[in-house]
Amino acid sequence: MTQQSTAPRTTRRMITVLAGSLVAASALAACAPGSSSTTNTHTGEISTDVAAAGDVTIKVSDFWGGTEGEWMDDLIARFEDTYPNVTIERTQEDWGQLTSTLNLQLAENDGPDIATANNGWSSLGTLAKGGLVLNLDPYADAYGWDDVIPSTIARQNEFTTDFSTIGSGSLFSTPVSRVSLIGIYYNTAKLDELGIDPPTTLDELEAAAAKAKSAGEIPFAYGSQDSPTALLLALQALYGTADEINDFTYGDTSVSADDIGLLEAAEKAEEWNEKGWLTPDHEGIDYQTAVANFLDGKGLFRFEYTGSLGLTDEQQGDFGYIQLPQVSGDGTVGVGAAPAAMVISSKSENPDVAAAFLDFLMSEDAAQASADHGLIPLLADADIPADAATLQSEAAGAAALGESDGFVPYFDWTSATMLDTLTQQLQMLYAGQTSPQDLVDAVQADRDAFLADLAQ
Amino acid sequence: MTMGIRPGAGVTGTPAPRAGRRPATRRRRVRWIGLAFVALPLAVYAVVVLLPLAQSLQYSFYDWDGVSAATWVGLDNYIEFFTDPVLRSTLGHVAVLIFFFALLPIVLGLVSAALITRGRQRGMAVYRFIFFLPQVLTSVVVALVFKRIYGPEGTLNTLLRAVGLGDFTRSWLGDFDWALPSLGLIGTWTTFGFCMVLFIAGASSIPTELYEAARMDGAGPLREFLSVTLPGLRGQVAIALTLTVTSALRTFDLVWVTTRGGPGTATLTPAVALYRAAFQNPDVGRAAAIGITMAVMCLVIALVISRVSERDS
């Protein structure tokens, strides 16, 4: 009998073990996900004395490749020269890779001290709200960042500490001494060929486009398969005021989508599409191909993010940049932001040193390094090499925006889904499946839904 | 669970009333050794499959951005999946893809298997290899190749112009009406060879006497196919259907590399919507709800297919 009973007993035991482990597993999973155990307020005294910090290693994760990566390497080397006690380990990741995993990386104890985040709710906002990145207000006071960062740029890095509002409150990230804009590039040789001067107003741009079209050229090199929005956002900035676009993006409900130049911009995009001013079959052309077409001379103008053409030193001067003034004639407004939001991890053991490095990335030296690497300097004056003709025109655009304090943030910071909404609506607009007013309404609905969700 | 119970249950069934103490101990030892062998795979399975599954199920009841504290929303994420017009439309897109990924290749595979098994030709292995090739290629490579073929200046349009059908040229993947069928045909191309090879292998195990008997009874090619080949391939068809339908349900890479769900939302699939919700617009709860729904659908479809194919035999 004893032998017989052993088998069932073992079975029973095994069932118990299995059931037990399942119960344990579900118990582990039972507590609500995302407990906010970390806090982003700095505790204790802060110090700006890097040399006194002892031997320190700072880990930086960023998404800058190419020239931007060289700029970063250059500045890291200089910082390490100044402070031999500091070692900076840089990890470069692909943009999509880093932005999609940053929340996990920052939650790790051995994650990066400093990282590049994407501004807006979907990346920076989520990190700040989750307590994964430090509130940088104490460092802003210590280093006097208020005097360095223009208010329209500072707003891009701010959240209120109840995380109900973006664009005001505490600083959760810093910009760097260079800027990324949306504007218009033109092909210098093509323009000369057609006897057209670089346009200085929207009317002149349209006249040039009409002339190019009748001469058998493609006026605007364009692709709308995956990234059609630069054209719309650049046009929007010619119609909307800086304040209203800023306020709308930052969730101010007193400003509606009807007030921000979006309708006029969408109408213009539709009109140009119907006139055949955009690359034929642009709905089947992806972003990479569109850029390649433009660099290849297939198209006179292109609405583009600065730095995205990847011009070599030899190509400097082949393409010029225009930051058009507003249609109303009052100054210049344009999309412009630092190329990333620099954050300090709440888990960083050396936030003081990390902050000193962020301060260095906003310095005059860093701005000069930007110019030297062919990137558009911001925050401080820099001498632009005389042979860098494209950069000269880009810097002139940034200067015009600075004079009017006309920087507006990337419109997709409005909500987590805004970029998808804009892309889809624009594709539908070109296919005649929606109207400019419907596009504007969809943008409004997207923000309404997002703000309602945020308020919960 | 079943894996854990089965060894014990099997042992209970073995008659051992007269066995002495030592064999029982040995048996027990053998049992524990067996358990020790499965312990590691079982633990791995629990950690990489069961635990994430339980977590996903849990997340799906929350509104969560992936970082800060989550709020319980009950079934809202599921309700949203079936009521939000854009999310709901992804189910319709999947239905279209199932036609192109599963039904069309299986029909084509059956026809070609029937033709091939009737008349054996020289060099059959070469053809089989050529048709099977797409199955071997990485899906991203396939997607990139077809992106070129379907492009405004791509091979397809060039071909159409060459034969005087220039009016039919379009940006196939940028066209609201044509993008989804165009994507679907890529799936047909990749799975057709797989289905065919599967069916040819199955058909070769059908006894030739059956064919001879059918011919003796005066059956034509069609009758022969319906009465001999098709019933003989029931198992293979069930396998092909299960694999292709579930792969259609989780279509991601093809869409992501070619259209990203566009133009508009014309080619958005649940898997792409899931990826966006999980990694781009932090809404982990919604992503988990989509994932669980798709998993359940896959399971139900697989069960139905296996039930139907077994009941008929």
Descriptive keywords:
heterodimer; A: 456 residues; alpha/beta; D-Maltodextrin-Binding Protein, domain 2; disordered N terminus; B: 313 residues; mainly alpha; MetI-like fold; 2 domains; two-stranded antiparallel sheet; 14 helices
Percent of sequence in beta strands of chain B = under 5%
Supply the CATH superfamily name of the largest domain in chain A. Periplasmic binding protein-like II
* Oligomer classification: heterodimer
Q: What series of H and E elements makes up the topology of chain B?
A: HHEEHHHHHHHHHHHH
Instruction: Report low-confidence residues of chain B grouped into runs of 5 or more.
Output: 1-20
Strand order of the largest sheet of chain B: 1-2
Account of the 3D structure:
Chain A is built from 18 helices and eleven strands. With 456 residues, chain A is of the alpha/beta class. Chain A folds into two domains: 51-179 and 339-383, 3-Layer(aba) Sandwich (D-Maltodextrin-Binding Protein, domain 2), CATH 3.40.190.10; 181-337 and 397-455, Periplasmic binding protein-like II (D-Maltodextrin-Binding Protein, domain 2). In chain A, strands 6, 7, 8, 9 and 11 form a five-stranded mixed beta sheet that branches. Chain B is mainly alpha-helical. Helices cover 75% and strands 1% of the residues of chain B. Classes of the chains: A alpha/beta (456), B mainly alpha (313). Chains A and B meet through helix 1, helix 3, helix 4 and helix 17 of A and helix 1, helix 2, strand 1, strand 2 and helix 13 of B.
What's the short story on this structure?
Chain A is of the alpha/beta class and 456 residues long.
Which helices and strands appear, and what pairs or packs with what?
The complex is a heterodimer of chains A (456) and B (313).
Chain A (H helix, E strand, L loop, with lengths): L1 H29 L25 E7 L3 H17 L3 E7 L2 H13 L6 E4 L3 H9 L7 H7 L1 H4 L2 H4 L3 E2 L10 E2 L8 E8 H7 L7 H13 L14 H11 L2 H8 L12 H13 L12 H9 L5 E5 L13 E4 L11 E4 L3 E4 L6 H11 L2 H9 L16 H15 L3 E2 L9 H13 L5 H20 L1
Chain B lengths: L1 H12 L7 H39 L2 E2 L7 E2 L3 H8 L1 H34 L5 H13 L2 H12 L4 H8 L16 H25 L4 H9 L4 H12 L1 H16 L3 H6 L11 H11 L3 H29 L1
Antiparallel strand pairs in B: 1-2
